[in-house]
Design goal:
Blueprint: H1 2-11, H2 13-22, H3 27-48, H4 57-81, H5 87-94, H6 97-108, H7 116-133, H8 144-166, H9 174-190, H10 205-233, H11 235-257, H12 263-279, H13 285-291, H14 324-332
């Protein structure tokens, strides 16, 4: 049930963007209001959970970069793209983010162990993208709006790589970190207001309601629900949402907006999702925990690994006096049998469990 609700909220984001644009709001205005309302929701949730915003300048510096590539830029690009491209197609393009993440990892040398199956998924996914846009046909969807959608997916991939390196696992509470990131995104997008074109007519009531729903439910609340889903059920559940999201966006676009669902678009969506599934094959849950990403390529919103506390010159512990018979028994006992409750006889610290890690919005 929770997976279905999250998929509906996230998948409907592309519908709300389309309605807000049709209601007279400019792409930049949609982006600013979305970031501000999402930040407000997360600030309330963080305060109720007694989580404080980060105070270190270094963390805020990383948050500004993450907010640019994970929120401000892709949110704006999706709004620009949906001026000329259907909302359903925008949802499918969002699903290509894991493919760009894999490609970026290969380019930077951070992605290792790329087997034939994952390579086939990468090629298949990009082939599905080409099938959707069909640039070889006059009736294809290739346009500047389509390029903006693809650029938004690439921006998410850049953000996830940066966040996994500089923000995930730094000990900052998850809700506070997400709220701070959206606050930074609000500030960044507000800086572009002087360059925004002035509109003579006021937005319609439908446009205002659409952007409010987008900010409160499609951004703020989904951050929180996604974090709880990963914390309670793990990354596999988040992967399910990632595969349902484009299906929801295509279905809502057809039912509510009357968007035409062509055979080529449906076939391309299936190929893209199959490619994403193959590209994520073989990734263990532990490996995903270390990178802070779910199987959908999304940065997890569940929290951060606490940084280990270094021990400065720990004092040596004197060996307890044992009878010679006990020493002989200890030598004959395997090391694994002498590990009790996660504390090894060869280590002075317990083995800490790794909690769930955090997600920047990937809508």
């Amino acid at each position: 049930m929770r997976i279905a609700v999250l998929a509906l909220l996230w998948g409907s984001s592309f519908l709300w963007i389309k309605l807000a644009l049709a209601g007279g709001l400019a792409p930049l205005h949609v982006t600013i209001v979305r970031c501000a309302l999402g930040a407000a929701v997360l600030l309330v949730l963080a305060r109720s959970a007694r989580q404080r915003l980060p105070r270190e300048r270094r963390i805020w510096g990383h948050l500004v970069v993450a907010a640019l590539f994970c929120n401000a830029l892709p949110f704006l690009l999706f709004s620009i793209g949906e001026q000329t491209v259907d909302s359903g197609v925008a949802g499918v393009m969002n699903a290509t983010t894991p493919l760009w993440s894999l490609g970026l990892g290969l380019l930077l040398g951070t992605e290792r162990g790329l087997g034939p199956k994952r390579l086939a998924g990468l090629v298949l996914g990009f082939g599905g993208t080409l099938l959707i846009f069909a640039p070889w046909q006059q009736s294809g969807l290739a346009s500047w709006g389509a390029l903006a959608l693809l650029a938004a997916a690439v921006s998410y991939a850049v953000a996830f790589a940066y966040m996994a390196r500089h923000l995930i696992g730094r000990g900052t509470p998850p809700l506070a970190l997400s709220a701070a990131q959206l606050l930074a995104a609000t500030g960044l997008t507000t800086l572009g207001l002087p360059a925004s074109p002035h509109t003579e007519s006021a937005p319609t009531l439908t446009g205002v309601l659409a952007v409010v729903v987008l900010g409160v439910f499609g951004t703020g609340l989904t951050f929180h629900l996604n974090s709880r889903l990963i914390a309670d059920e793990g990354p596999t559940a988040a992967a399910t949402v990632g595969y349902l999201l484009p299906v929801v966006s295509v279905a809502l676009g057809a039912l509510v907006l009357g968007e035409e669902i062509g055979v080529r678009v449906v076939a391309g969506m299936v190929v893209v999702l199959a490619g994403v599934g193959l590209s994520r094959a073989g990734l263990s849950r532990a490996g995903l925990s270390r990178t802070g990403l779910s199987r959908t390529g999304r940065c997890r919103a569940g929290g951060a690994r606490p940084a280990p506390r270094p021990e400065l010159h720990p004092a040596p512990r004197p060996a307890p006096h044992r009878p010679s018979s006990a020493r002989t028994a200890a030598r004959s006992t395997p090391v694994s049998a002498r590990t009790i409750s996660g504390v090894s006889s060869t280590s002075s610290q317990p083995t800490a469990a790794t909690p769930a890690t955090c997600r920047g919005d990937s809508m």
